[in-house]
User: Which sequence fits this backbone?
C-alpha cells in the first residue's frame, strides 16, 4: 500500500532516498581567505560545449554563496570516499574568515583559470565563473556557473570510463536522520549497458515545418536516422527564432558546427 508522507524541510534527504553527488566547493572572499563547504545539489545545466554550465543549490546566507556573489568564481571538487571524514569536517559551521581546510587532510593547489584553489587530493574539478545567481524564498539560493575549465588527473585520461569510475571512488550522499547522522554509499564499480537504436520497421518520413533547400535535406539524411527528427526540430526552432522561414544549406552547416559537431554525432552510431 502506498502512503503520502508529510513534506518537511530537507524533504529531499529525509524519508526519500535520492542519491546525490558529493562535492566540495572552494571559494575565496574579498580578502582572499579560502572557504570550503560540501554541496550535493549540483547538476549540469547547459550541456552543450559552446556554453557549458552547472547549477548549484545552496543557502543564501552561506559563506560559499556570499563569496561567489562577491568574487564571481568558485571551484567544484570531487573527493573520493576515503575523504568522507574530511568532507564532514568542511560541513561544520566555522565562523566567517576561518578556513575549514585547515582541519582536513586536503591540500590547496592553484586552479587553472580561477582564483579559488582546487583540492589536490580530488581527481576531478570544475572551475567556474558566476553566470547568474537568484534567490528563492527567505533562505534558498541558486547559482549558475559558466565552466571555465574541467580539470582531471592525467591518469584518468588513459583508461576507459568503467576504470575511471572505479579509480574516482566517488561517494554518494543518501540523506540523513535529524541532520546529525549522514548516510553515504560509494561508487566502486559500474554496470555498462550498450545503447541500441530502435528497431527499423521501414523508413519513417521526417516531419518538416519549414522549407529546406536540397543540400540541407541531403545533409540531414546523412545524420543517424533515429536522431534526424530531433535534429530537424532543433534546427527549425533556431531558424524560426532568427526570423527565417527556410533552412538553407549554409545555415544548416553553421548550426551543426555550433550545436552538433562531429564528435557529438559520433556518439549516435546508426547500426
Assistant:
Amino acid at each position: 500500500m502506498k502512503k503520502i508522507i508529510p513534506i518537511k524541510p530537507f524533504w529531499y534527504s529525509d524519508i526519500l532516498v535520492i542519491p546525490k553527488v558529493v562535492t566540495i566547493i572552494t571559494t575565496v572572499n574579498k580578502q582572499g581567505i579560502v572557504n570550503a563547504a560540501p554541496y550535493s545539489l549540483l547538476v549540469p545545466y547547459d550541456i552543450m560545449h559552446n556554453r557549458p554550465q552547472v547549477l548549484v543549490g545552496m543557502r543564501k546566507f552561506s559563506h560559499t554563496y556570499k563569496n561567489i556573489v562577491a568574487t564571481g568564481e568558485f571551484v567544484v571538487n570531487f573527493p573520493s570516499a576515503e575523504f568522507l571524514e574530511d568532507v564532514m569536517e568542511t560541513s561544520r559551521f566555522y565562523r566567517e574568515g576561518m578556513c575549514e581546510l585547515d582541519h582536513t587532510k586536503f591540500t590547496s593547489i592553484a586552479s587553472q583559470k580561477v582564483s579559488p584553489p582546487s583540492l589536490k587530493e580530488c581527481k576531478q574539478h570544475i572551475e567556474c565563473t558566476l553566470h547568474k545567481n537568484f534567490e528563492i524564498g527567505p533562505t534558498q539560493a541558486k547559482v549558475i556557473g559558466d565552466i571555465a575549465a574541467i580539470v582531471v588527473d592525467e591518469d584518468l585520461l588513459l583508461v576507459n570510463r568503467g576504470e575511471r569510475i572505479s579509480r574516482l571512488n566517488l561517494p554518494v550522499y543518501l540523506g540523513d536522520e535529524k541532520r546529525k547522522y549522514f548516510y553515504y554509499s560509494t561508487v566502486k564499480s559500474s554496470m555498462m549497458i550498450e545503447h541500441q537504436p530502435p528497431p527499423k520497421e521501414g523508413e519513417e518520413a521526417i516531419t518538416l515545418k519549414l522549407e529546406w533547400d536540397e543540400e540541407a535535406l541531403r545533409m540531414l539524411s546523412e545524420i543517424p536516422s533515429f536522431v534526424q527528427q530531433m535534429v530537424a526540430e532543433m534546427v527549425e526552432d533556431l531558424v524560426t527564432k532568427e526570423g527565417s522561414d527556410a533552412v538553407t544549406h549554409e545555415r544548416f552547416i553553421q548550426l551543426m558546427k555550433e550545436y552538433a559537431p562531429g564528435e557529438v554525432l559520433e556518439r549516435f552510431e546508426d547500426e
Summary: Helices lie at 63-71, 84-90, 161-168, 214-221, 225-241, 249-259, 262-265. The radius of gyration is 23 Å.
